[in-house]
Amino acid sequence: MLVTAIILLIAAAAVFFLSPVVLSFGRWQSRRPSLALNAWLTALIGGLLLSAAAVIALIAGALEVQRGDAGPHVLVPWIAGWAALFAAGIALAVVLSASDDFGRRLRAEAQVLRSRWTDWYVDSPFRIVTVDDDDPSACSLAGRPPEIYLSTGMRRVLSGDECAAIIAHEKAHILRRHNLVLRAAAINSACLPRRLPVSRRFRASVLTLVEMIADDDAVQATSADAVRDALESIGRFSGDSSLRLRSLRLRRIQLGAG
Q: For residues 246 and 191, which has the higher predicted lDDT (pLDDT)?
């Protein structure tokens, strides 16, 4: 049991530490963002299953030797089993704390947004809300009903077609449950040592992937020109260079398809 558990723990550690490295290395993710995100989610689930199997194996080994004959040779598996249970408890506490922090930030943002409502309409099942803010911004909140927020600055900067593209982008976030993906990414990052460079790159990579996936869905719902123009208009106003990079990505994809 002890050897099996060690092998499972090594495999789980490899998955947890190597999957963020693979996810944040190279440029292939920009061509296949859905594949990259699904690969990370699969690796995350696999790592969790391997970790759970290792803990179960260690605890089972401790219980087995406890029922058997006493002696010095049973001390190591007995200590390892109960140490694994203790470590699992600590890991669970970290996971719950990271999840709670993420949820608390989300609720705070929702409260601020809902205090600035100026107008809204229903696009079933979504509620499209305009908020009083001069900066061009948009976001979405999953719920009942799911809500999409556009600032007055966004509506002023963008044309009607470009606003429709941004709304389609935010709808994609909700339909694909990206809030759960970002929560899982926050938990995964909390479990990685903060000083590791890959920890910072990993958070940025997941955020970029979900934005690119939503861009691609918005292109299908509206048009590539509308999404590109919206990203470039917002980027010029806000100075966010990542928006222009996303626009250039869509242009390269369109040229490649043509």
A: 246
Condensed to tens digits (0 to 9), the pLDDT of residues 66-83 reads 555 555 555 566 566 666
**How does 52-87 read in b/e, with b if 16+ C-beta sit within 10 Å?**
ebbbbbbbebbeebeeeeeeeebeebbebbeebeee
- Residue percentage of the chain with pLDDT more than 90: 28
With tokens 């929702």, the residue in question is 110
Residue-wise DSSP of 52-96: HHHHHHHHHHHHHHHHS--SGGGHHHHHHHHHHHHHHHHHHHHHH
Torsion of CA 130, 114, 127, 104, to 10 degrees: 130
Report the C-alpha dihedral over residues 44, 145, 166, 30, rounded to 10 degrees: 10
Q: Are 154 and 234 in contact (CB under 8 A)?
A: yes
Residues 201 and 207: their CA atoms lie apart, in Å, by: 10
Structure tokens at 177: 């449950």
Q: Is the model's pLDDT at 149 over the cut of 60? A: yes
Q: Where are the beta strands (DSSP E) in the chain?
A: 117-123, 126-131, 138-141, 147-151
| Average pLDDT of the chain to the nearest whole number | 80
**At 142, is the secondary structure helix, strand, or coil?**
coil
For residues 114-150, one letter each, b for 16 or more C-beta atoms within 10 angstroms of the residue's C-beta and e for the rest, the string is eeeeeeeeeeeebbbbbbebeebbbebbeeeebbbbb
